[in-house]
């Protein structure tokens, strides 16, 4: 009798112990999610004197961090955000399709260069991207479209303070921020990533039938980037009123990129060169990942090669003709079990039938740089934005006499065997049927006329 009692007490203790561990894991998981946003959102003055010294005085305003009212009231940031009002603001903004500064710089033309910038929460980098854009030649003829998946007044204020060209904001409407407890965010009844298939079936969690190629269930934060990329491209080419007859290039940037002052000059040069010598070069690319830069050798060199996701995803540009081809094979993007937008595009590229793979014409001396290389997975402590930005500034200063080449010389390469390998299985993370459906749904929305609000 006492032995039995002892055993059952032990069992209870073990169960309680397991429960505690489980709760801890869940807490850790959710707080790391929070940390990520919180950490990235921290808008401290990280700009060192050296970096500031190389930024013209009149652009310092974009780096100006308004100190938080620490003494007064900090509950505003820490406390829960009012989702209802954020959703309403997003809907209203998307309906209005406001183009700021159109009165100063004139309307969007058919051949206006559209620069699409995908923004999450890394405002420090965004500030520096804006400073680099401000210094680019011909920037006043472009339209900057900032596409946000996180609604934040500080970011909005920064974007709306841009006065050197036309600016538009679009807001991804299916974000985790605005869907905290439901798909495409995390539904409490979704299967946890590591649930085994049989266990999931038994528990009847939402997506039990749809693990990915590796047997894992979806993680909302990893699917969001691909959704956002796809939504943004659809929004720009298919839905906005101002692009109805647009045939010019759309250049894709991200919040932690940084441009050289001649990037628009290079884009035009690549387009002209491609039109004359490589009409099958559908994608133009201004960035490459290099360890060392040799502008004195490479500033006027371009390369023609099969487009590859991991090498040519930074500062790429294409026009509506190319988009039409992507649209024609959209299921290769949406139904492919890979949460990376670039690998999904590579899969599409490899499955276009007779047209063949995308060819890219790229700058061997890059004009777009990745300054946020500390990435999401690193801690702030070993990651100092100023250090990387300072390096890029110095590099461009040294290269300045090699910028604005009047012509370029192209070499044709066929890419290594590794890069021509046919993708078979995807990287996973995109097995959930709801993700595939949401992606497909995004292409079904048609052109939307601007709504005017009178307040
Ligand atoms: C940021 O800090 C630097 C020195 O680290 C200072 O010179 C600069 O004025 C500060 N900038 C702003 C906008 O607060
Ligand atoms: C900071 O908060 C205090 C008290 O709420 C307020 O009086 C003050 O105007 C605030 N300062 C700024 C710069 O917002
Ligand atoms: C901060 O603001 C909240 C609501 O606006 C208020 O309830 C709270 O008392 C304020 N706290 C401080 C320290 O002023
Ligand atoms: C959120 O804001 C709306 C209007 O802006 C208001 O009606 C609603 O009560 C607010 N909800 C919360 C939880 O504060
Ligand atoms: C823009 O393209 C449309 C349709 O192709 C055409 O009707 C219009 O004249 C063009 N506008 C300009 C300014 O070129
Ligand atoms: C759009 O891109 C295609 C493919 O690169 C090119 O052939 C075409 O000339 C471009 N259209 C315009 C209007 O520039
Ligand atoms: C970042 O590095 C610069 C020098 O490269 C230094 O001046 C600055 O204080 C550092 N900032 C932080 C936040 O560590
Ligand atoms: C996609 O659209 C269909 C039809 O409007 C709708 O029933 C379905 O719920 C949508 N799916 C997702 C995941 O948004």
UniProtKB/TrEMBL annotation:
Name the UniProt key words of this record, in alphabetical order.
Answer: Disulfide bond, Glycoprotein, Glycosyltransferase, Golgi apparatus, Manganese, Membrane, Metal-binding, Signal-anchor, Transferase, Transmembrane, Transmembrane helix
The kind of enzyme this is, by top-level EC class, is transferase
Pathway(s) of this molecule: Protein modification; protein glycosylation
**Which cofactor does this sequence's record say it needs?**
Mn(2+)
Can you say where in the cell this protein is located?
Golgi apparatus membrane
Reaction(s) catalyzed by this protein?
an N(4)-{beta-D-GlcNAc-(1->2)-alpha-D-Man-(1->3)-[alpha-D-Man-(1->6)]-beta-D-Man-(1->4)-beta-D-GlcNAc-(1->4)-beta-D-GlcNAc}-L-asparaginyl-[protein] + UDP-N-acetyl-alpha-D-glucosamine = N(4)-{beta-D-GlcNAc-(1->2)-alpha-D-Man-(1->3)-[beta-D-GlcNAc-(1->2)-alpha-D-Man-(1->6)]-beta-D-Man-(1->4)-beta-D-GlcNAc-(1->4)-beta-D-GlcNAc}-L-asparaginyl-[protein] + UDP + H(+)
**Transport in keyword set:** no
Tell me its EC number(s), please: 2.4.1.143
Q: Which family does it belong to?
A: Belongs to the glycosyltransferase 16 (GT16) protein family.
Task: Please name the PANTHER family in this protein's record.
Answer: ALPHA-1,6-MANNOSYL-GLYCOPROTEIN 2-BETA-N-ACETYLGLUCOSAMINYLTRANSFERASE (PTHR12871:SF0), BETA-1,2-N-ACETYLGLUCOSAMINYLTRANSFERASE II (PTHR12871)
Name the UniProt record assigns to this protein: Alpha-1,6-mannosyl-glycoprotein 2-beta-N-acetylglucosaminyltransferase
Organism of provenance: Plutella xylostella
